[in-house]
Design a protein that fits this description.
Helices cover 45% and strands 15% of the residues. By secondary structure, the protein is of the alpha/beta class.
């Protein structure tokens, strides 16, 4: 049933295959909008798991090639970018007219050029969802900002450069934390035994990291923490769930080199019996819910979605006191904060939770309550929907 004031939203995303944090957040938003009676259309450059999930949720998805635009000075590459944006914009222009689109929503900065061109052609408002750091705003960056009707930043930390650079237009900038589906705490199952299938040396206490393998995650801090932990106990198992997932080919090459580095480091530190690498999972919740603690060691994380996903599952969390993570974790209430790049402090925090099960239960309960109160899909969706109403009025 379509509600009276329903909208037609067109999402542009740079990725249709594996699901990363940005895609998971977009999926939560799309599901909320569809359940609320809105019509959602998605343009993605390729088919894959994300494309299929959106379609199953009720979104109408279209595949159309999109070049990954980055800073380049080669005239032939710049020409290719221009051709790609022009062809894409003309295709989406006719699609937007046919579907009578009300709002265009760009899910990441990597798709912003495409969104701006479509918005200018169709005269429809453009929402730019900022999920990664943007600190340099040259002439092009300022022009792109001026062409948007609303900018959504996923944390106050991420929004700071925007608020500083565009002080006179700060009313255009909104801080909206990502949302996650929060199940009732008493309905969460811990008995699937999916994690046990992945761990050859399973111990009684499992500490996990879940997400994309890239240098800013500082996974070496997690590995080094286990050099301290294994001196104290042999009952703690570390699990790294994820792989190199990005649509940018240059970044993908760097991430793969980083993955090789941490695998060599694991062998060098003789941690093969203590650390298990698990391949990328489209739906990692079945593994996370069986972990005793979820850790995020990022140097500077724009938000830290994996933490709210763990909190929503009733799993205690440890994060680094940097980036957007302090906006999620209230120290010693909904989790533990440790200094970044400090493996000894991380090891001490893990040992503390290992030795105090009552403290783990406290963090699990209060973390779940905070996820339900502040980071639920409903809170997330309602806030974004209000922004749509504002730009279309």
């Amino acid at each position: 049933m379509v509600k009276k004031n329903s909208m037609r939203i067109l999402f542009i995303s740079d990725h249709g295959c594996q699901i990363g944090g940005g895609e998971r957040s977009m999926f939560e938003l799309v599901s909320y909008l569809i359940n609320g009676g809105n019509s959602v259309y998605c343009i993605l450059p390729n088919r894959g798991h994300f494309f299929s999930r959106l379609t199953e949720a009720g979104a109408v998805c279209f595949k159309f090639p999109m070049a990954t635009i980055a800073r380049r000075y080669n005239p032939f590459i710049l020409l290719w970018y221009m051709v790609s944006v022009f062809v894409f914009s003309m295709y989406v222009f006719f699609l937007a007219k046919k579907k009578n689109i009300d709002v265009i929503h760009v899910n990441k900065t990597t798709s912003l050029f495409y969104g701006v061109c479509v918005s200018l052609l169709t005269w429809k408002p453009l929402v730019w969802h900022v999920r990664s750091y943007n600190r340099r705003f040259g002439i092009v960056g300022r022009l792109l900002f001026l062409c948007t009707d609303a900018v959504i930043c996923i944390s106050h930390n991420l929004a700071a450069p925007f608020l500083k650079t565009f002080r006179r237009k700060k009313d255009k900038i909104s801080i909206v934390h990502n949302g996650v589906n929060v199940l009732p705490l008493d309905k969460i199952s811990y008995t699937s035994n999916e994690l046990a299938k992945c761990i050859p040396h399973q111990r009684s206490f499992v500490v996990g990291m879940v997400g994309r393998i890239t240098a800013c995650k500082s996974i070496e801090t997690f590995l080094e923490a286990f050099t301290y932990i294994k001196r104290e106990t042999s009952e703690i198992q570390g699990v790294l769930v994820g792989d190199c997932v990005t649509s940018n080919p240059v970044q993908l090459a760097a991430d793969r080199a980083y993955k090789d580095k941490i695998e060599r480091m694991c062998r060098h530190l003789c941690l093969e019996d203590y650390i298990t690498f698990v391949e990328y999972q489209n739906e990692p919740e079945s593994l996370m819910r069986e972990m005793d603690v979820v850790v995020l060691t990022s140097i500077e994380e724009p938000f830290g979605r994996i933490l709210i996903e763990a909190m929503a599952l009733g799993v205690p969390v440890i994060g680094c006191n940097s980036g957007g993570v302090p906006e999620i974790i209230i120290p010693d209430e909904s989790g533990v904060l440790v200094p970044p790049r400090n493996p000894q402090a991380l090891a001490e925090a893990i040992m503390r939770l290992f030795e105090h099960p009552i403290l783990r239960r406290k963090f699990a309960k209060m973390g779940w309550e905070r996820a339900h109160r502040c980071f639920s899909t409903e809170v997330y969706g309602k806030t974004v929907e209000e922004i749509y109403r504002k730009v279309t009025s």
